[in-house]
Amino acid sequence: ILTILGNSVVLATALRRSSLLKSPELLTVNLAVADIGMAISMYPLAIASAWNHAWLGGDASCVYYALMGFLFGVCSMMTLCAMAVIRFLVTNSSKSNSNKITKNTVCIVIIVIWLYSLLWAILPLIGWGYYGPEPFGISCTIAWSKFHNSSNGFSFILSMFLLCTVLPALTIVACYLGIAWKVHKAYQEIQNVDRIPNAAKLEKKLTLVS
Questions:
Q1: Fold held by 1-175
Q2: Is the pTM of this model over 0.70?
Q3: CA 48, chain centre distance (Å)
Q4: Average pLDDT rounded to a whole number, residues 159-169
Q5: Residue 83 CA: distances (Å) to CA of 7, 89, 159
Q6: For the chain, first and last CA: distance in Å?
Q7: Does residue 206 carry a pLDDT above 90?
Q8: How large is the C-alpha radius of gyration of the chain?
Q9: C-alpha torsion sign, points 154, 39, 20, 104
């Protein structure tokens, strides 16, 4: 309920001020779409199955649940990655260069994110990787057991782990560390010229916020 309400507020706010949205803010809207999509398509089945102590649907609903989870999960991860990269580029560019990140550019990025997520989600349906019940049997996802039992499953899980989790996560960490370092250097310069009082405290706070 909180997920649906919270993300609905984000979408409603974005819709009301659509003409005022800056291009990077479209990624926040996309993240809200992915999160609310996951909540609507997956949570009811998962909650009902948890109360039942077993998966309520059959094989078809299991594949559907896993597909939705993978689609929206990868989309959320890649959106967070794109947000970090764009914020890093804006922080480390001059004002004229940062304005080059237009709404059209971000829209293309969003389309690529959805296509990338859809590709990974349908790969198990066409023969690379598998979907199946999770160990507790109340939800479905990638068949992790195939990591040891099948070369097909092993190669899919390893590739997915690297390209959909490790690489995006490392990119996010690197970008935000870069932003923090940029803020640190900027306020170090301000401290050196003593333009503002308590510069060191302000530097620490802004670095932490970044």
A1: Rhopdopsin 7-helix transmembrane proteins (1.20.1070)
A2: yes
A3: 26
A4: 94
A5: 17, 10, 23
A6: 30
A7: no
A8: 21
A9: positive
CA distance 120 to 78: 12
DSSP character string of 147-196: HHH-HHHHHHHHHHHIIIIIHHHHHHHHHHHHHHHHHHHHHHHHHHHT-S
- What residue segments make up the domains of the chain, in order of their start? 1-175
Span 140-155, average pLDDT: 83
Q: Positive or negative, the Cα torsion across 155, 82, 104, 26?
A: positive
Four-residue CA torsion sign, 198, 199, 204, 206: positive
Per residue in 89-111, pLDDT tens? 888 776 555 567 788 889 999 99
Q: Is 130 or 185 the better-scoring residue by pLDDT?
A: 130
Contact (Cβ atoms closer than 8 angstroms) between residue 132 and residue 62? yes
3-state secondary structure 23-85: CCHHHHHHHHHHHHHHHHHHHHHHHHHHHHCCCCCCHHHHHHHHHHHHHHHHHHHHHHHHHHH
Give the tokens for residue 154: 């092993």
Answer whether residue 183 shows pLDDT above 60: yes
